[in-house]
Specification:
By secondary structure, the protein is mainly alpha-helical. The chain has seven helices and three strands. Strands 1-3-2 form a three-stranded antiparallel beta sheet. Strand 2 and strand 3 form a beta hairpin. The longest helix is centred in the N-terminal third of the chain and has 22 residues.
């Protein structure tokens, strides 16, 4: 006899709380983020400030809309993050000439200098995280997480995938 919840899902097949994807991801973050947070604190940065800087280190300048999308920081919160980074001299904000509604966040020389200071230590932390698994496992993990980023698929397409496997 099966036990079903109100949605008709067999509760014996439902993953336990400890093995639910959100909880596993939270535990992984709890395991790896302390090293990053300690490094950010040494440089007087918050995680959100680091995410903005990290994005600009790769792109030099971006619209605030693009920064919000890439860093997953809501636009309303991003304004304060950009304010603080600008006060620290790490970024500058420039209003677009083509569209005055668009604000561009641009890395300053000080922001680039900070990258040169902090990057080797960030690379060391990343290497220690990657060392937890083999290169093949890291590649598979990256691919799997990218699939989750795309969001859930309808049950019908999941069934088609199982039939073609």
């Amino acid at each position: 006899m099966n036990d079903f919840d109100m949605n008709g899902i067999d509760i014996l097949e439902r993953p336990g709380f400890e093995t639910s994807l959100p909880m596993m991801l939270y535990r992984v973050l709890d395991a790896i983020m302390p090293a990053y947070r300690a490094l950010f604190a040494e440089y007087g940065l918050t995680e959100q400030q680091w995410r903005v800087l990290r994005t600009l280190w790769d792109n030099e300048s971006l619209s605030s809309t693009d920064v919000a999308a890439r860093t997953l920081i809501p636009a309303a919160s991003l304004v304060g993050v950009l304010d603080r980074l600008e006060r620290k001299g790490l970024i500058a904000r420039i209003r677009s000439v083509e569209d005055r509604r668009v604000v561009i966040a641009k890395l300053t020389a000080e922001g680039r200098a900070l990258e040169r200071q902090i990057a080797p230590r960030l690379d060391d932390i990343q290497a220690s995280v990657r060392a937890c698994v083999s290169p093949e496992q890291w590649q598979a993990l990256t691919q799997i997480l990218k699939e989750f980023e795309a969001g859930p698929r309808p049950a019908a397409s999941q069934e088609e995938d199982r039939q073609h496997a």
